[in-house]
Amino acid sequence: MQALLVIDVQNGLVDLAQCNDTLANIEQLIQRFQTQQKPVIFIQHFDDIQESVLHPANKGAQIIERYQPYIEHLVIKRTPSAFYQTNLQELLASLSVDHVYITGFNTEFCCQFTAIAAYDRGFRTTFIEDATNTVNNADTYEMSGLDIRDFVGTVLHWASVIEVVDVEEYLEMQS
């Protein structure tokens, strides 16, 4: 069974990114998975620091309103990996999932960490590059011209253990 992981699509992150295309891609995948009766699991990050936009008491920590109607499964995390000290692995096992698809925020942190952790736990893992996004940019990392999604996708692809596709490729594979 396949499952879609929608990682940290929360107000506090989405509001900081140029991400309309990413949100549309994720929503298209959510709808496809739900139509095929495959699980969609939302991951929500909470920070312990009161001033953080991702502190549970802040509006920024909430999953964006547009996706609220899609939430059937929700896992709360406090680290970049959606597996670390959460019930994600048990939830996936209860749903007989052996293949996870990674989408969401931030590409180079929570999406990448979760993809690697999924692989380490024996899941077939597919990273949907254009269904991830980040609040960071080349200036953040002082690396002129850096395309973070492309860089992370390339690293994961070259590792030859995590499949990297874009939404169009996913849709073609499922036809």
UniProtKB/TrEMBL annotation:
Entry annotated with the keyword Lyase: no
Residue ranges of domain Isochorismatase-like in the record: 3-159
Pfam entry (one): Isochorismatase
UniProt keyword annotations, A-Z: Hydrolase
InterPro entries the UniProt entry points to: Isochorismatase-like_dom, Isochorismatase-like_hydrls, Isochorismatase-like_sf
MF terms in GO: hydrolase activity
UniProt record similarity statement: Belongs to the isochorismatase family.
Protein's UniProt name: Isochorismatase family protein
Phylogenetic classification of the source organism: Bacteria, Bacillati, Bacillota, Bacilli, Bacillales
